[in-house]
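Re: the 400-residue chain
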Amino acid sequence: MEYITAQQAAQKWGIPEYLIQQYCICGRIEGAKEASGWVIPADTPNPLGGQPSGETAAPEKLPAPQALSHLTPMPLMNAAFPLGHCMEYLEGIEDARLRDIARAEYYYFSGRAEEAAQAAELYLTHQELALRLSACLIYAYANLSLGRIQQARYALAEVHNILAAADEKMPLQLRASAVFIATTASVLLHLPLPETIGPLQDYIRLLPPGLRMFALYVQAHQTYLQGEYGKSIGIVETAFAMQAEIFPIPAIYMHLVAVMDHMSLKQSEQAQSHLLKAWELARPDDLIEGFGEHHGLLGGMLEAVIKKDWPEDFRRIIAITYRFSAGWRKIHNPYTGHDVADNLTTTEFATAMLAARGCTNQEIADHLGISPNTVKQYISVTLQKLNIKHRKDLKQYMLH
């Protein structure tokens, strides 16, 4: 039998390649098989029907990604919705269960942790694993921000339980989703990965494109934590170069990790460029959560850029930062034995973070738009709060 690749089928039928891959994963293309990527019998008819070979289907007639399969977790993260139309896209999701999960995602990514936790809780024990995995990730991080550490730990443990119970009967795409969710949860908390979780890179190709993009962000973040800033930037640049569509939520996070990398390399101009690109993606739909989550790693860039021109948004982001950071430390510090500072203001933390990276008072002042004397005061107060005497000792209390 003659076979064609998913890419060739996409050209033949006028259908995006990722939709064909989704059909293959769901078993909706008879005879499709994996051979270093999906291949399809050459005489297979167009799975959408009614579209002659070689003609291009009108984009508006294509089924939305979430309509193809209930196996795709985090549907909003996986959505290439037009900027400013997130809610419109969300409400147009036909599957009520996926719509509920997408709504929980939106609540979370727009900084509404209480509503996110309530929406996700309904699916924590759902029999469909993709929905349960999505709910666990949202519920864990929402409760982290709410200071409900027991509930957050429960949800994270449930993800690991799902993976531990997996056997050879679990479809590969579900296993990939579980590894993706578990790795995301661990890396963003700066926690070591359980030994039972396989390398995320082994599963990325099985993820749909939006989740694949976010998975690359997770890899870039993990690479940043290993101090390989240039390599992390390379992951970001490659991911953006390869994306066929813009997935706003993954793209926001990808730009933010690039800010972290460039600030660590003292490349503030490039860092500012990425921050503004993330902000352009986030503002139309109020997707501000990621900025609050990453505040401590952004090296004062929010203070330098967002505070000046968008003071009200900055105030909301800082409120997210305080909530998220408090919960983050309650899980991170006891588990790792580290003592990331928990009694500094966000400005003190940003100043100390820059000082820990070797920036002088003048460099910090220029970056934050304040005087060197003010920087000196912030550093002095920080040293007193941490009960240390030397500037070089700041690093052990900072995120890295």
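The CA atoms of residues 307 and 315 lie 8 Å apart.
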